[in-house]
Amino acid sequence: MRFENIQIARYGRLTDIRTPQEGLPPIVIVLGPNEGGKSTFFSFLTTLLYGFSPATRDSHPYSPWSGEDAEGRAQLRLDDGTVIDIHRRLLSNGWARMVVADRTEDLRNQPLPAVEHVPRPVFNQVYALTLAELAGLAGESWDLIQDRLVGAMGSSDLVAARSVASWFEKQAGSLWRPTRRGNQTARTLAAELSELKDRRREAVELDRTLRSKARELEATEQKLRKLREEREHSKVLEYR
Questions:
Q1: Which of 11, 95, 153, 162 is the most exposed place for a label (fewest CB within 10 A)?
Q2: 87 sits in which H/E element
Q3: Is 90:71 a contact under the CB 8 Å cutoff?
């Protein structure tokens, strides 16, 4: 990806800046004294790619000194030759419009799709303006870079941490989701548990019935034994 041309209407102290319409050369050197706006210019380029951060006029550090809306646009060319026109403006919230070929898309304050694979913190530090900023590569940016490096080493024994986390998230999602959508193991188990509880209740009722019948049978057998004893006793008396 490369910038073909850049237009800054208002951004921090920068106003009404336009690069030549015939396009920028492959290498561009930004030269200026301290506090001349180099960091502001880099922030503007980052904003074109990723959106305003913070995304409100009152809290953004590069809201124009004039009190007007921060605004700018650029034309970019991707490695495959695709040309993208991006126009961003900071109203009460971030606004953006992207044009690719004849297709127009409202991005609101979202990053360009072409840079979504590189998180903003990584971009800010890898393309840092000073050695001190580059030397400070750490935290989330370093973790992400390590993931990319480990994932690209080609060893069958190593898997990028994010791939592992994604696998665990998928497995967890198959077990349970707060929305209860999808064919989840938790829902299947809950249905089976409910069925087992119903069967348990039926078994308890059946056991209670069987125990009652067993008591009735025992009482009947006792009566039968008593009647047999009485009959035998009567036979003995008759014989005498």
A1: 153
A2: strand 83-90
A3: yes
- Indicate the pLDDT class of residue 153, thresholds 50, 70 and 90: very low
Distance CA 65, CA 17 (A): 15
3-state helix, strand, coil in the chain (%, to 5): 45, 20, 35
Answer whether 72's CB lies under 8 Å from 88's CB: yes
DSSP label at residue 113: G
For 229, other C-beta atoms within 10 Å of its C-beta total 10
For 34, half-sphere exposure in the C-beta direction (CA atoms, 13 angstrom radius) is 1
Domains and CATH numbers, the chain: 2-137 (3.40.50.300)
Instruction: Output the six-digit token pair for 25.
Output: 């050369």
Tokens of 42: 């880099």
Which runs of consecutive H residues, i.e. helices, occur in the chain? 38-50, 120-126, 131-135, 139-151, 161-175, 185-239
Do 52 and 94 touch, CB atoms closer than 8 A? yes
Tell whether the model's pLDDT for residue 73 goes beyond 90: yes
Higher pLDDT, 53 or 178: 53
Q: Three-state SS for 38?
A: helix
Separation of alpha carbons 183 and 5, rounded Å: 50
Mapped onto helix, strand or coil, the DSSP state of residue 194 is helix
